[in-house]
Specification:
Blueprint: E1 18-19, E2 36-39, H1 47-56, E3 60-63, H2 67-72, E4 81-84, H3 90-100, H4 107-124, H5 126-138, E5 143-146, H6 153-164, H7 169-177, H8 179-182, H9 195-201, H10 206-220, H11 223-231, H12 235-245
Parallel strand pairs: 2-5, 3-4, 3-5
Antiparallel strand pairs: 1-2
Domain Tyrosine specific protein phosphatases: 127-184
Pfam family, one: Y_phosphatase3
Keywords: Hydrolase
């Protein structure tokens, strides 16, 4: 997959702000540049960053952070309408419960917890992603969707959008893994968990996204059926998405 120099935007207050443009989708048409952006949270953007977003024409921001996350790091960007689509970060709570129960959480257990989280995106959080698609279908005005790190909730949302546009699964996976190149991890607090465990939490692995996509295949028979049944994105809606977001 060729790397485009404009895919990752060098913002000061966000390290994982990326354009989904350029990937080949349905009928050999490419995803339009400067329409669909994914990011880590926007609460640390500088004035220059905000001007960059304004120059891109970004007027909509979809926030997958949970209620507490959103309240802790709010943001207000001039000219950008915010939409809260909360998906609570259950893996962190589950790990806290295990630690409080006296268990030593291993990296492999953490991987398994992350896989469970991704399967929950498919089965328990479809309504949030369906709402995102409602807005995608309304207009092709540039938008950004994000969570805290822009890697898990955001990563699955990006996969759904790209696959709805006909981008192959292997290319979607490559886009997903770009987080490991761009996201600036916070300082690791080893008093809370071993470094190896924290490293699993703050990066992405193929195993994570595969858990979700395999669940889609096994439980729905494939992405088109999942999109239609759970996200209300059937053939007509996919044609409209292609008209809006493919060149």
């Amino acid at each position: 997959m060729p790397r485009h120099p404009d895919r990752a935007l060098p913002l000061t207050g966000a390290s994982n702000f990326r354009d989904l443009g350029g990937y080949l989708g349905a009928d050999g048409r490419s995803v339009r540049w400067r329409k669909l952006f994914r990011s880590d949270h926007l609460g640390a953007l500088t004035a220059d960053d905000a001007r960059t977003l304004g120059g891109l024409g970004v007027g909509r921001a979809f926030d997958f952070r949970g209620t507490t996350e959103r309240a802790a790091v709010p943001y207000d960007l001039n000219g950008v309408s915010q939409y809260s689509l909360p998906i609570e970060p259950t893996v962190v709570q589950r790990m806290k419960e295990l630690v409080e129960a006296g268990q030593v959480v291993s990296p492999q257990q953490t991987v398994e917890l992350m896989q469970q989280t991704y399967r929950a995106f498919v089965h328990d959080n479809a309504a949030r992603f369906a709402t995102l698609f409602e807005h995608l279908l309304e207009s092709d005005a540039p938008l950004v969707f994000h969570c805290t790190a822009g890697k898990d909730r955001t990563g699955f949302a990006a996969a759904l959008i790209l696959m709805a546009l006909g981008v192959p699964r292997d290319v979607v996976m490559q886009d997903y893994l770009l987080t490991n190149e761009h996201y600036r991890m916070p300082e690791l607090d080893e008093s809370r968990a071993p470094r190896e465990v924290l490293y699993v939490l703050w990066r992405v692995q193929e195993d994570f996204l595969d858990a979700a996509l395999d669940a889609v295949e096994q439980d729905y028979g494939g992405m088109p059926a999942y999109l239609a049944r759970e996200l209300h994105v059937g053939d007509a809606e996919r044609r409209r998405l292609a008209a809006l977001y493919l060149d």
